[in-house]
């Protein structure tokens, strides 16, 4: 069975790429840090331009004065626009990084390029004030065949890839791989199941799943807990790993019982975070990267051969129907949400038949 992503017309836009990460070493690191300093400065200036509603072309001309390479300036402004859209005027730029958007017409990427060798990846970064700066990236041998094909496609102007160089603890490279190509290299075949639909409710401290059949009847429901991750001082990295592990366990369980469709809320339809009067509740909200968990869940599900459905989250948490489900089924709030998400997924399937 070939997996597919089903949702609104806009849904696939948020799942076009998979990011792979690796350490990178530069012989002239000082030059790369200089580029990152001015790129980050351009993003900061771009935020002010975005708040004023300046057009892309005019913004690029202004930012070119800070970082004199049009492809960096353009990417910086697009990132500034995204930051303003997500956070309003409360945006702080503290880190330094370099980013360059991908393009088929530019043989993949104009500012950050890679070349695959037998056991490593050569990278070169465009210096706006000089020549290319060369480095070596260590992304893992399992990715080399994938990167070789992407390089070939880029040279033929058939695919592009975005790229970022970051400096949190040491220099890292982040390459945005087209999703279809990633799935081609890393998907696992899944036998056909029984047309069962599983609804997922993603939370900061638990993962709730409800499985229904094509008639909407409940087959099973299950909760994966990771309550410790919301305690004060719990390491953010370890919390993320526990959540991802729960997602993987849930998907493997669903594969074993014959589920063919998994439904998630399309969180990209939700604007902003809703804060509460509870300090502990707000800590859960700020520390919980729900959209990142959604992206991981969608990609993991596609890799395992599930069809993925993204549904509108309206009414799945606070609604009369939600209250009715809790009352009649005896479900807690999160299980009730998972059940309603599954029902919405089933409705999408029937509308697409």
Characterize the structure shown.
The protein has 353 residues and is of the alpha+beta class. Helices cover 41% and strands 24% of the residues. The protein contains 10 helices and 15 strands. It has a 7-stranded antiparallel sheet. A 6-stranded mixed sheet has the order 1-15-14-11-12-13. A two-stranded antiparallel ribbon has the order 4-5. It is globular.
What brief labels describe this structure?
353 residues; alpha+beta; Nucleotidyltransferase, domain 5; 2 domains; six-stranded mixed β-sheet; 24% strand; globular
Summarize the structure.
Helix content is 41%, strand content 24%. The chain has 353 residues and is an alpha+beta fold.
């Amino acid at each position: 069975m070939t997996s597919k992503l089903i949702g609104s017309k806009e849904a696939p836009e948020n799942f076009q790429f998979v990011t792979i990460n690796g350490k990178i070493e530069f012989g002239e690191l000082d030059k790369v840090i200089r580029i990152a300093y001015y790129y980050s400065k351009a993003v900061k200036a771009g935020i002010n331009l975005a708040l004023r509603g300046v057009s892309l072309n005019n913004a690029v001309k202004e930012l070119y004065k800070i970082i004199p390479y049009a492809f960096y300036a353009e990417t910086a402004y697009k990132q500034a626009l995204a930051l303003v859209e997500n956070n309003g005027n409360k945006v702080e730029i503290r880190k330094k990084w370099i980013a360059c958007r991908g393009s088929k017409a530019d043989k993949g990427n104009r500012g950050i390029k890679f070349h695959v060798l037998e056991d490593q990846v050569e990278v070169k970064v465009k210096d706006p004030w000089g020549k290319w700066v060369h480095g070596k990236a260590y992304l893992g041998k399992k990715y080399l065949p994938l990167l070789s094909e992407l390089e070939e496609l880029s040279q033929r102007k058939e695919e592009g890839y975005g790229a970022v160089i970051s400096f949190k603890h040491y220099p890292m490279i982040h390459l945005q791989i087209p999703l279809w190509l990633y799935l081609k290299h890393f998907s696992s075949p899944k036998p056909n199941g029984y047309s069962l639909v599983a609804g997922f409710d993603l939370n900061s401290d638990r993962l709730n799943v409800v499985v229904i059949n094509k008639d909407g009847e409940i087959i099973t429901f299950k909760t994966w807990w990771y309550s410790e991750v919301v305690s004060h001082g719990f390491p953010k990295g370890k919390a993320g790993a526990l959540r991802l592990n729960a997602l993987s366990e849930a998907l493997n369980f669903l594969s074993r019982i014959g589920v063919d469709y998994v439904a998630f809320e399309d969180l990209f339809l939700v604007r902003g975070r809703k804060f509460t009067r509870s300090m502990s509740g707000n800590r859960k909200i700020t520390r919980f990267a729900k959209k990142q968990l959604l992206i991981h869940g969608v990609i993991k599900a596609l890799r395992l051969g599930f069809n993925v459905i993204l549904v509108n989250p309206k009414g799945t948490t606070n609604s009369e129907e939600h209250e009715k489900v809790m009352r009649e089924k005896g479900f807690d709030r999160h299980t009730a949400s998972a059940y309603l998400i599954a029902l919405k997924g089933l409705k999408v399937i029937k509308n697409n038949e």
